[in-house]
Amino acid sequence: MNWLDRIALFQPLDFAAVAIIFGVWALIGWRVENSPTGKPSVSRIMAEYRREWMRQMITREPRIFDAQTVATLRQGTSFLASTSVIAIGGTLALIGNAERLAGVAEDLTFEMHPAIVWEIKLLIVVIFLTNAFLKFIWSNRLFGYCSVLMAAVPNDPNHQDAEKMASKAAELNITAARSFNRGLRSLYFALASLAWLAGATALIAGALITLIVIWRREFASHSRRILLEK
Question: In angstroms, rounded to a whole number, what is the distance separating the alpha carbons of residues 63 and 159?
Answer without folding.
Answer: 17
